[in-house]
Design brief:
alpha/beta, Aminopeptidase, 2 domains, 12 strands
Length: 289
């Protein structure tokens, strides 16, 4: 028997056996034992928390942690045009930002994904919360469909309405937590806890807006913003009530000029430089207070 055939047999035989189990109703009769044997495959619980990513940079936990979130991934490619896919573009931008922050030192950095992994929208901000992040930056790239000429980056923060809804849901789920954004909620009544969560969310919104303005200021000369660059929306990925967060739309991949810029080494470097400066200035202000 040829060696190649033997190798294929080794790999395909287990698959064939499993397929036979399935065709027989996932069981095989064993008459002399008087019962069936069933093949069972253990699967993780749907509610099991996602593994936390690696933290890069100083081991000193007093240093602020930035969680960078490259949008989409895995089965979700995001916006696509030609051979350009959003999930690939934003991962390149995220890695460039991580490298720039680590090179300058002083902050810790984690990425929600470092490869072509799928994460749900709820998992992404929850990772930042569980890691005690001081800042959450979700990176995306927009699509204008068949509309030509639309280009430029934009920055989203959570809208006031979405903020109130998020705070209410969080209060309902987390009223037994000890602390939220530095506020002690242990042992408080539900009403007082709700108020504390609302106040915390309001502070987070203010910090998110301040950070968004710093991105605009630091990137105005190099990032090519959309005329309506500052926006707010009901975005699930921004709904962590105790982590300042922005969603950065790096540009429109349906625009050839934007797509070329975002996929280039020069474009990634310009993004990492401007966003890195904004992050450092933001932390300098926060930790000075």
């Amino acid at each position: 028997m040829p060696l190649r055939f033997q190798l294929w047999l080794v790999f395909l035989l287990p698959v064939a056996i499993i397929a036979a189990f399935y065709a027989l109703g996932a069981s095989i009769p064993v008459p002399h034992l008087g019962r069936d044997y069933v093949l069972s495959l253990g699967l993780p619980s749907a509610n099991a928390p996602v593994d936390l990513p690696k933290i890069y940079g100083p081991q000193d936990r007093s240093r602020p942690l930035v969680v960078i979130d490259p949008g989409h991934g895995g089965k979700d490619p995001g916006a696509s045009t030609g051979g350009t896919r959003e999930k690939t573009i934003v991962l390149g931008l995220a890695i460039a930002l991580k490298d720039a922050l680590l090179e300058q030192g002083g902050v810790r950095v984690a990425l929600t994904r470092e490869d072509d992994t799928f994460l749900s929208l709820d998992e992404r901000p929850e990772i930042a919360r569980r890691m005690g992040a001081a800042l959450f930056v979700s990176i995306h790239a927009d699509s204008a469909g068949d509309i030509s000429g639309v280009r430029g980056a934009s920055i989203y923060t959570l809208s006031d309405r979405a903020s109130s809804e998020a705070a209410a849901r969080f209060a309902e789920r987390e009223n037994d937590a000890d602390r939220l954004n530095g506020v002690d909620v242990e042992g408080q009544s539900d009403t007082v806890s709700d108020i504390l969560v609302e106040l915390s969310q309001r502070r987070v919104q203010q910090n998110s807006a301040e950070f968004a303005e710093l991105i605009l200021r630091e990137g105005r000369a190099t990032l090519g913003f959309h005329p309506q660059a500052r926006r707010s929306a009901v975005l699930a990925v921004l709904r962590a009530p105790d982590v300042p967060a922005v969603l950065y739309e790096a540009g429109y991949i349906t625009n050839p000029a934007d797509a070329q810029r975002l996929a280039s080494a020069e474009g990634r470097a310009a993004f990492a430089d401007a966003m890195g400066r904004a992050i450092r200035i933001y932390f300098a202000r926060q930790y000075r207070e």
